């Protein structure tokens, strides 16, 4: 009877799984002490992550993270920006910090800043624009050495959540007042809410003449400099959109409880892209090279190849990836992995539970290219259920779902 029940459950798992063989999202948390990722940014093909406990840096597409907190006197990182060769970090309570040495050290840059809870940072040329929780808006013309306060005039709203800039047009998404616009570097502002049904704006992103706003009622699009907005929510099953990132005509939306959605038609329709994404509360998104990275609330960082989503313009590098099989699957206490290593490299095997926690690791060391086999022996007290096996060969990675009976 137990075998019959398990077989039925396993068949149901297969039917519900979008892709049983290959998982799109893989957790990348080695070295991260904190798994709440408020901010992600790409710089020179490396990734910086902002957490409750400071800043982490990865130079290998998220496989490993190193803490980078020297000089950082306040740990909660809310936002990043890149200006030239420098990195700016906004904190939720400690103001602005600047690194001129790729994150190895940080210096406080709070002269003339009166409110230290930073929510958003944007760059235009050599100018830095900062928005705070209390509604203060600051501009620096000298890499943060001094700041000019430009409060949002008669339209003074708290929660300046997001800044997007196109030429002289500065768009701010607020927490209570919708979208406001300045064309004179903050000297005057106008409200731009025609068509918006929700005035809590979490994110604004610009792609050529299109402006996208992620709100607590989904995504809205403007093609006339925010004079009017149109809802673009077909297929979007979670209405709270925390963050947006645009790659060509493709838009990724990170939501409150629904994970990540992708639109390949400029927002006209959305499809959930959550295969193996165990953290569905998305706080941040970033694209670096062939990958998209997602920062979650408590689940750490996840990574997926853009080519896995069929996005054009990304070279498919799967010819260099490893291919592998697992048997038996389902397994009881052990299973064998047979894989072909297409290039000589160090190989590491990890096993993750459905919450994204790594519960087993096996370092195979440096292996020559060719067919390889290894056996994974697990503790008997590991609970029955679904797990994710991740095989890393150098910078290449593949994953497969397995079931413990």
Description:
The chain is mostly beta strands. Helices cover 4% and strands 48% of the residues. The chain contains one helix and 35 strands. It has one helix spanning 2-16, and strands spanning 26-27, 37-43, 46-51, 54-58, 66-67, 77-83, 86-91, 95-99, 107-108, 118-124, 127-132, 137-140, 148-149, 160-166, 169-174, 179-182, 190-191, 201-207, 210-215, 218-222, 230-231, 241-247, 250-255, 260-263, 271-272, 282-288, 291-296, 301-305, 323-327, 334-341, 345-352, 358-367, 370-377, 385-393, 396-404. The strands form nine sheets. A four-stranded antiparallel β-sheet has the order 1-28-27-26, with no helix packed on it. Strands 2-3-4-5 form a four-stranded antiparallel β-sheet, with no helix packed on it. The longest helix has 15 residues, at 2-16. The radius of gyration is 23 Å and the shape is globular. The chain starts with a helix and ends with a strand. The relative contact order is 0.11. Residues 1-22 and 314-321 have low confidence and may be disordered.
């Amino acid at each position: 009877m137990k075998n019959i029940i398990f077989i039925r459950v396993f068949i149901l798992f297969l039917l519900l799984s979008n892709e049983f063989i290959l998982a799109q999202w893989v957790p990348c948390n080695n070295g991260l002490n904190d798994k709440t990722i408020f901010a992600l940014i790409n710089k020179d093909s490396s990734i910086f992550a902002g957490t409750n406990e400071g800043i982490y840096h990865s130079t290998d597409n998220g496989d490993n993270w190193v803490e980078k907190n020297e000089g950082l006197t306040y740990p909660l990182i809310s936002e990043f920006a890149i200006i030239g060769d420098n990195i700016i970090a906004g904190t939720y309570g400690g103001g602005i910090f600047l690194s001129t040495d790729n994150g190895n050290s940080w210096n406080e840059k709070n002269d003339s800043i009166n409110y230290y809870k930073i929510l958003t940072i944007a760059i235009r040329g050599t100018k830095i624009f900062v928005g705070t929780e209390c509604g203060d808006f600051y501009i620096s013309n000298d890499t943060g050495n001094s700041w000019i306060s430009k409060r949002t005039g008669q339209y003074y709203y708290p929660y300046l959540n997001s800044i997007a800039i196109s030429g002289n047009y500065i768009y701010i998404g607020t927490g209570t007042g919708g979208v406001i616009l300045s064309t004179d570097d903050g000297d005057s502002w106008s409200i731009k809410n025609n068509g918006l049904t929700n005035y809590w704006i979490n994110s604004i992103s610009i792609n050529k003449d299109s402006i996208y706003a992620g709100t607590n009622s989904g995504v809205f699009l403007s093609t006339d400099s925010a004079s009017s907005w149109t809802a673009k929510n077909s297929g979007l099953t979670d209405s709270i959109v925390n963050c947006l990132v645009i790659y060509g005509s493709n838009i990724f939306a990170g939501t409150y409880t629904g994970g990540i959605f992708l639109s390949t038609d400029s927002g006209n329709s959305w499809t959930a892209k959550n295969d193996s994404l165990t953290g569905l509360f998305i706080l941040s998104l970033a694209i670096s090279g062939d990958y998209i990275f997602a920062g979650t609330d408590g689940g750490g960082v996840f990574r997926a190849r853009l080519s896995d989503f069929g996005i054009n313009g990304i070279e498919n590098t799967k010819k260099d990836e490893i291919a592998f099989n697992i048997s038996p699957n389902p397994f009881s206490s052990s299973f064998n992995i047979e894989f072909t290593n297409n290039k000589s490299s160090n190989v590491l095997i990890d096993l993750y539970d459905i919450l994204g926690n790594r519960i087993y690791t096996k370092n195979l060391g440096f292996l020559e290219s060719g067919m390889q086999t290894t056996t994974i022996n697990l503790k008997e007290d590991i609970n029955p259920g679904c797990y994710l096996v991740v095989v890393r060969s150098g910078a290449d990675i593949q994953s497969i779902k397995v079931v413990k009976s």
